[in-house]
Design brief:
Chain lengths: 116, 111
Amino acid sequence: DTGVSQNPRHKITKRGQNVTFRCDPISEHNRLYWYRQTLGQGPEFLTYFQNEAQLEKSRLLSDRFSAERPKGSFSTLEIQRTEQGDSAMYLCASSPYRGPPYNEQFFGPGTRLTVL
Amino acid sequence: DQQVKQNSPSLSVQEGRISILNCDYTNSMFDYFLWYKKYPAEGPTFLISISSIKDKNEDGRFTVFLNKSAKHLSLHIVPSQPGDSAVYFCAASYDTDKLIFGTGTRLQVFP
């Protein structure tokens, strides 16, 4: 039984560099979510996919952020021209769509990004 | 605007006693509520959920209560164990959309 996996677990980068994170969801789950968590806060929604379609993007997701899920399986989140304010834990979650209202989402271990 | 609020940042409970974690929400459209547990350096782990058409759901030592008129939910852990020490987040959603999380409550269970 494999849960949601994320790579890398940690990423340290210099301001202005681009970074890319990968998420592999639970195999039978057709929904995939990205969240960001900073210290002392709960996770904040960034974007989500149903299969390969990106259904919603948060206003938090500036033009420097882009996410893809090309074949409806794994997903990537890219941040271009990183800023120190991008330092956070980036969490991926997946869920089996069962129709409303059910919405259990299962999270990966996260990727901790530090921008120097 | 904080739609989901956890007003107690921390809670300390003796092993074997009941832990009660509280959560308030403002959006009456929310139709599903969840509790997650989070250990340091790990992602949140799903614990228990409840639909807005119910007022109680139990799973082993965990029970979630929902009071729609007060826009309040609570998580009861009985009996509390040292391994329950973690940060607990409540979350809410509408129509299977994104989860909206509270800021978390740190639970410490001491011997």
